[in-house]
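Trying the structure run again after the queue cleared.
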Amino acid sequence: VQEKKIFTVQGPYPIIRRELRARGWVERKLPSVGRQLVQHHNPLHYPWLSTEEEEQCDEDPNGIHNLMSYLVRDRLPNFIWTNFLEATDCELLQQDNVVNHYARVDAFTTKEGLCLSLQKLPWIEQADPNTFFPRCYRLGIMDEREAFIEDFRLTAARSLLKLALEEAGDRPVRTRQVPNLAKGAGWHKGHVSYPKCSTARPGSPLYPELVEEALEVCKQHLGVLRHQDIDRRTPSPCRTCIDWDRFLQQYYRVAHEGAGLVLTKQQQKECQNLLQHLAEQLPQLEMEGKLNVWILKPGAESQGRGIICMTRLEEVLQLAWSCTAPSVQVGRWVVQKYVERLLTIFGTKFDIRQWFVVTDWKPLTVWFYQDCYLRFCSRPFSLCHLERARHLCNVSVQKWYKTSPDQDPRVPRDKIWSNKQFQEYLAQLGQADAWPQVLVPGMKAAILSALRSAQDQVRFRKGSFELYGADFLVGEDFQPWLLEINSCPTMSPSSAVTQQLCANVQRDTLCLVLDRKDNSTSSIGAFELIYKE
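Done. Tokens:
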């Protein structure tokens, strides 16, 4: 009590409990449903223990930890580790105790919050979120919904130019191996539909005017991007005389149903030049691909719940407002550009879970964990099939799927790799420098930009801290793309790799926030200070 070494743990964190006890801390156990208050005559018999705690008695055969817990039952804890701040009893939160959460972090730990915060980033620092965060819109906000509609149309026009260049010349361009996304294609509420890849068939429609219309739209858009419209009051490219409903329907047939295009040599040259100039203005031109796939997400959900992949504008808007997911409030959807040109490993999509800790918000102090892990999907990557097993890397999603027969046998059975295994793979590709020179610096920069964009929204407590898990995709050029940041990342291991890494990051977090206070030279494990204002 005098040393202020009383702690409370809420949630499944045996590593935290064990490490604190080893440091001489005593746990104050919290009452739970069905637990009886202490009325006993034998201090080594504890009828108030939950099932989980009874199982822990194997680690406490003499009952000394439970006895000590009983003796401090009326004391306030000095250290609290909990699943969520909201789960902590307010009476336990005192000015001088340490808690592993901050309040109001939803400004960057929800999809909706991160979308809004990063929109404000250019006003806070000289950084462009489009260089590390796939463009994102909140569909419940009218201005953002209109901006998304314009973005979808412009992306369709650019995609058409890319499709047209697949095969150049005076003969029709035939799209190859692209999905036939009929109405309702994608995934939703556990029901899977399988779009069919199709190629142009003899006699399929030709749209000679489409390329010319797409060229005109993209030229106008380039002028806007170059600010050539300031004095001429050029209308938005999406408000020209083009019939967008007709244009999009014909684009769908070309991109998804194998319809043909006519492209002259002059148009071929114009397409090449125009896309080259657009690439100088649009950081996401390459990663966005040519099929105009967007991913629709509930703004405040996690673990892949409610996520839907779509390629048709009218269906995105209809679904966002029909609110078919019961847990999603009307208008709380965000829509984000899907990274179509991504790096795969053995033909399989993966993402990276990267940990970091914030130990202060004023001044902002950020520690980057130098170990991380990769999460694989259960089926080979394909834009022809948009079911969850191929496109959502979350462990909570993939655990429901068995590895498909057509999966490369080199993909790990438990669908997890360590970053060291990934580095070995990159070295085999002759890209060993991609990890230290592109991926790690890119992840650090994206995390810092996200934190700075939301800094004014967070309610911080001096002496507290929080461990976060950021999720990244990797582009074909090895550039990391931030998808989301999770408060309270799971510490429940799903593989031998995560069993080791999750234990390590918990131990090192305690070294960082506790041991370092008493001894500034003590080890902080794999943590690295990457920013302090």
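The chain has 16 helices and 18 strands. Worth checking whether this holds up in the mutant runs.
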